[in-house]
């Protein structure tokens, strides 16, 4: 007898399959598509609901009829040969017309929603946000507010947002399930999403188009806030961060004379354009496009070994000592 009897193996395979599948069924997860927080997401969920109920009803009808027929008309010993039917006009018409009607019921709202959510017209009073997908982080620019940030998009609740998607390097896809469907970020093309967030809260997003080694590490957060909180956030972004002192001041000196300045902007210190703008880095909750909480220990580890922590990261190893990394982390975390 084998050490793993057949029955046990079947159970193990079934469990190994069901556990991750069931885990994917969490209704209110941070990236659930059935917990809408914008008009865009609600429209899509409406179509999804129609298709789900229509197919559930059809499935139920078919399986009940099938069960009944299997039992009622099963072969019995000595049963006579049943009536042999060849062609039946009514049935032929019925099973052509009914599926056509079902497809119509699904197609009409689907096409309506596609047209409504693909509209390229920007509403005149919307808040414009430029989203740029970089390997492997997100840049967010608010041209009307003169604010630039990365990986954490703040939006006011109840206001129409015009998201203009641009790709400076390769194709990415912007996807924040609570706020609606994914849309590609393509170099040389201007794609647009128009939506109105209708529920304050923190919504998780993820690049949804394979874009290289750290595609899976290209997350983001969208923080939808009441208007007053959003205005306060904008005011903080537009103000200069406090001048550092002590360890943070040492960190600033190390930053200013290292390779960091070639890629990152910190107002008044550097003007690099290839990496995230760090002027208010300490005000963000997560680090490295949603990979870890933005704590001094995590930032120190990141600036010491970005290549090990995020495969393929464009940020080079700077050769900092532990002390230098701690000082730079203290400086960056202080940039509120
Ligand atoms: Cu960017 Cu995948």
Walk me through what this model shows:
With 336 residues, the chain is an alpha+beta fold. Among the domains are: 127-236, Immunoglobulin-like, CATH 2.60.40; 247-333, Cupredoxins -  blue copper proteins (Immunoglobulin-like, Sandwich), CATH 2.60.40. The protein has helices at 6-23, 39-72, 89-118, 227-238, 247-256, 296-304, 306-309, 322-333; strands at residues 127-134, 137-142, 147-150, 152-156, 161-166, 172-174, 183-185, 191-195, 201-206, 219-225, 265-266, 270-271, 286-287, 292-293. A 5-stranded mixed sheet has the order 3-2-1-5-8. It has a 3-stranded mixed sheet with strand order 4-10-9. The longest helix is centred in the first third of the chain and has 34 residues, at 39-72. It starts with 5 loop residues before the first helix and ends with a helix. The site of dinuclear copper ion has 9 residues, from loops. Residues 133, 136, 172, 207, 209-211, 215, 218 line the site of dinuclear copper ion.
